[in-house]
Amino acid sequence: MNIRKQFTHFACLSLTTLLLLTACGAEPETIEENQEPQAKRIEIFTVGQNSTTLSFTKNGQLQSGSTSFVIPQTSGTVTDIKVEVGDKVSENQTLITLGKSLSTDSAALNYKSALEGLEKLEDTRFKTDYAAQKSIDQALIGYYTALEGVQNAITSKEHAEDIADEQTDLLEDAIDDLEDTLDDLNDDNPSYIEVETALEQAESQLEQLEIGHEAQMDQMIYGISMAKAQLEASINSVETVQTQYSLQFIQIDSTILQAETGADLARLQQQARNVKAPISGTVTNIQTEVGSFASPGQILLTIENIQELKVTTYLAPEETAMVNEGSLVSITTSTSSTTGLINYISPTLSQNGKAEVEISLSDKKNLYSGEIVEITFTPNLQNLATLIPLNSIIIEDEQYFINTVSSDKTIERIEVQIGQIIGQYVEILEGVNFGTKVALSTVFLREGDAVIYKVKRSAKSPRS
Q1: Where does 105-271 sit in CATH, by number?
Q2: Are residues 218 and 224 in contact, defined by beta-carbon separation less than 8 angstroms?
Q3: Which DSSP string corresponds to 305-331?
Q4: What pLDDT, on a 0 to 100 scale, did the predictor assign at position 107?
Q5: pLDDT of amino acid 93
Q6: If we measure between CA atoms, which residue out of 233, 364, 263, 264 comes closest to residue 305?
Q7: May I ask the CATH architecture of the domain 1-53+381-459?
Q8: pTM of the full predicted structure?
Q9: What separation in angstroms does the CA of 149 have from each of 212, 220, 260, 275?
Q10: Which residue ranges of the chain lie beneath pLDDT 50?
């Protein structure tokens, strides 16, 4: 792992401090032969006991889940802008008004003419409907009159048949009685001729009744047929009126439909002067001003749905190993700060060798798509080995060492294997154990130097 550049600053600082210390005083202090060297005062970092606050930062960009450009459908001069950058708008809300152009003036005139024409057609249809209803009512009166005539003719025929049947029954009974009486009398009986004469009269009456009834039935049947013919004519009259006005209504309704289509088109042209929001969201950019001329296809405003706003950044493989989906991060912009959650880490690397990371925001106020933000990640310590301060590392012959403090408070230099560098800390893969005291000093330390230090009482780190 190449981390030399990250150690350069700390190495230069230690060397400068050493030169300053050795330059102080014209002559070195004389130490008597039997005098023991004075212990050097240092600070220590106890592995696993001192707290370590780890973080690393990356730049990211705010992105909106949906962005829409507001474009006019007609030409005109911008007469009013009803919103400002940062305003929240609803779908179909009027944002800009256009006017003072041939397109807008023509649209207004066409819409007015279309409404007037439509109103006249509606009036014509109303009058035609009234006339049709009157004609149909008259035809129906003729129909019901004819229907009543047919019913009356049938009823009269049935009544005449009933009367004829009763009369025929009476005469037939009388004839039967007279025939029986005549059979009981002798030819020489004085009543015989009288009964015989009565029988002849009854038979004659029956014959006349039958002839008269037959003639009456012929007349009544003819009357019924005439009544039915009149009823059929009245039905035809009703159907003719209905057909006649149905055709008129079809023509009128077709004309009205065309007029309504024209009115709708004119209305849309008229409404096009009111430029509306295609989506609900926040106005993030206004690209026109009052008095400017606008034409179809020209972008006037930009609206973004900040409810779907997210942050996108890219992490190296070793960095993605230190965070998880669901991890909390800090987001900072030039004007505000908030927090977010990692909701996606791409399982594949992009062409730059890094993985895309998406972060959802807890607060989207005053944030806009395209803005560059600073993201502070807090690594998951469970995925890391032991951590010590970065400035405790010593590089010699491409090997890494640290100064540790032994139990007799002397310096013991040991070799270590390092892993990832996280902020001001470095990961130690091999070489130290829990409780190892790492020397932190601005003075030069050698193997075996005696040291003194003050033990700090601090909370244990999350990795204990």
Answers
A1: 1.10.287
A2: no
A3: -GGG-EEEEEE-HHHHTT--TT-EEEE
A4: 67
A5: 92
A6: 364
A7: Beta Barrel (2.40)
A8: 0.42
A9: 23, 12, 48, 70
A10: 1-3, 5-33, 457-464
Nearest Cα neighbor of 415 from 404, 428, 431, 392 is 431
Q: So what's the pLDDT on residue 253?
A: 85
Distance, in Å, from the CA atom of 414 to the CA atom of 437, rounded to the nearest integer, reads: 12
Beta bridge partners of 62: 311
Q: Which amino acid is at 457?
A: R
DSSP 339: E
Residues of the chain with CATH 2.40.420.20: 1-53+381-459
Burial 259-291 (b: 16+ CB within 10 A, else e): beebbeebbebbebbbbbbeebbbbbbbebeee
Q: In the chain, which segments carry CATH 1.10.287? A: 105-271
Between CA 403 and CA 412 the distance in angstroms is: 6
pLDDT of 227 reads: 86
373 alpha-carbon distance from chain centroid: 29
Residue 25 CA to its chain's centroid (Å): 78
